[in-house]
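Question (not urgent): is this output format expected?
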Amino acid sequence: MAIYQDVKKELTHRISEGIYKAGEKIPSERDLSLAFKVSRMTIRQALSELVAEGALFKSTGRGTFISSPSLYQENLKSFTQTLIGQGIVPSTKVIEVATISQVKKISQWLNVDQMAPYYKVKRLRLGDGVPIALETIYIPKKYVEGLPKYDLTTSLYKILEKEYGYDLTHITCDIEANISSRVIMEAMGLNKQTALLKITGITYAQNDLKLFYEESYYRSQLYKYHVDILNRP
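Got this back:
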């Protein structure tokens, strides 16, 4: 067995035993080199394989971190609820909140006047401090007047339910494989192109109201989406 594989095996053991915890930054290549008494090139090779396998991830300008366990979503829950249910601490960074108009395609999908103003909310979603998803939501302003005054680092679902009285009923969405663009890499702190799940869809409220459109990118090694497909009679 090559030396770097021994290092990789030991690092994997430390991760599985919780010596290195999800979201934590691992020691530098120099420190690991001294600890294992091997060259930095050997350490670099072991780390590269662990990054490729999703056990670690690199954040530009910050270092190398332990990835969170894969998240698993199978029903209509907010991102916040999903993480809390799996023992992961959620957090959110608001990147953009803007009022826009003339969003013709989205207006057609939501059955809204093409000239209607929208709130565009772009957020980075994290679990245990690890970037997991980049989401952008488009919601007609007339449905949520004054939305920016609320704390958008919290659950949007809860804001919509508690402050506006909406009962979120279901989502129709498309899921496809994607590769991170430079813009997404920068927003998510990725230092190389990464496999993503692109999820686009419409969230419905009571009376079959098409409430908002969402476009999100999830790191595929950290997120799983469960779908039941039933045979029609």
